Amino acid sequence: MTRKSRARLDRDSRRIPRKDNIASVTVDHKNEQIIFTTNDMLVKQIHRDGPRLARSFDRLTKKQIAECSAVFGQVQGLVLRHLSRLGDDDFKATSARLLASASNSLVASIEVARHGYRRQYGVLARTFIETVATVIAFAIKESALQQFHAGRLDSNKCVTWAKAAVPPIGPLWGMLSREFVHIGKGHSAFEPPSLYTADDEALTFIINSLRGNVFFCMLWLTSSSRTKPIHRAIGNATDRSRRSTRRRRWLHGWSRFSNQ
C-alpha cells in the first residue's frame, strides 16, 4: 500500500476533486457549500454507478424477469421463422420484422430501467406498444399493410384500430404518451438515477408494465395469421396462461396494472 501525500489526504477529507478533473465550481452561499462537477462524471455514471443500480434492480426482479423471459423466448421462435424473408413485404414477414424491432425496444426498456432511469423506461415502453399496435392493425385492417409500405400509415390510427380488438392498448398507450413521452410538469421533477428498493412504486409499475408487454407478444404467438381473429387470440392467450402457474402470476400482475 502506498502512502498518500499530504495534499491528497487533505483533498480527500474535503472531497475536492483533482484540479485537472474539475469541470466547474459553484459556490452555494445560502447553504454554505461548494459544488464541483468533474470531467469524468459521465464515465463514472456509466461504469461505476450504472452496474450498482442494475444489481439492485436484478436482485428485486430476478423471478419476474425469468417468468417474462419464458414467454419472450416462444415469441422469438415464431418471429425467427419469417425473418429470413427480409425482402418480402407480405403480412407475416413484415409483422415479424416489426416484432423483432418491438423486441429490441422491450429489452432496451429493461436495460434503461435497470440503470435507474425510471421515467425514460416509459418512453421505450410506449414505442413497444405502438409497434405491437401496428402489427395488430395489419391483422384487422385490410388496407393497413399497404399504407405502411407506401409510407402513409399513421401510427396513431393503428392504436385506434388495435384497441378495438385489444382494449387495454388504448389507455395504456395514452398514459405512456401523457406521463412519459409528451413533456409535462412531471418531467421537471429532479429524478437522478437511484438504487431500487422493495417499496419502490416505480419498480412495481415497471414490472407490471413488462408483464403487459409480454402478454401483447403472446397475442401474436397465438394468432399468427389474418385467418384467426385477434379477439379469439386474446381468449386463447388467456386460457394458455391460466394453464400455467408461472404465466398465471404475471398475467394477474398485468390485470392489476391495466385496471389502475
Characterize the structure shown.
- The protein has helices spanning 6-13, 41-83, 91-114, 118-140, 144-149, 155-165, 169-181, 201-222, 230-242, 245-258; strands spanning 22-28, 33-38.
- With 260 residues, the chain is mainly alpha-helical.
- Strands 1-2 form a two-stranded antiparallel ribbon.
- The protein contains 10 helices and 2 strands.
- A hairpin with a 4-residue loop joins β1 and β2.
- The longest helix is centred in the first third of the chain and has 43 residues, at 41-83.
**Uncertain spans, ≥5 residues at pLDDT below 50?**
225-260
Helix content: 55-70%
The general outline is elongated
Question: From N to C, what is the helix and strand string?
Answer: HEEHHHHHHHHH
Computed over alpha carbons, the radius of gyration is 23 Å
Number of helices: 10
Strand content: 5-15%
Rounded mean pLDDT score: 82
* Biggest β-sheet: strands ordered side by side in the sheet: 1-2
Largest sheet: 2 strands, antiparallel
Secondary structure topology:
Blueprint: H1 6-13, E1 22-28, E2 33-38, H2 41-83, H3 91-114, H4 118-140, H5 144-149, H6 155-165, H7 169-181, H8 201-222, H9 230-242, H10 245-258
Antiparallel strand pairs: 1-2
Helix pairs in contact: 2-3, 2-8, 3-4, 3-8, 4-6, 4-7, 4-8, 8-9, 8-10, 9-10
Brief characterization of the structure:
The protein is mainly α and 260 residues long. It has helices spanning 6-13, 41-83, 91-114, 118-140, 144-149, 155-165, 169-181, 201-222, 230-242, 245-258; strands at 22-28, 33-38. It has a two-stranded antiparallel sheet with strand order 1-2.
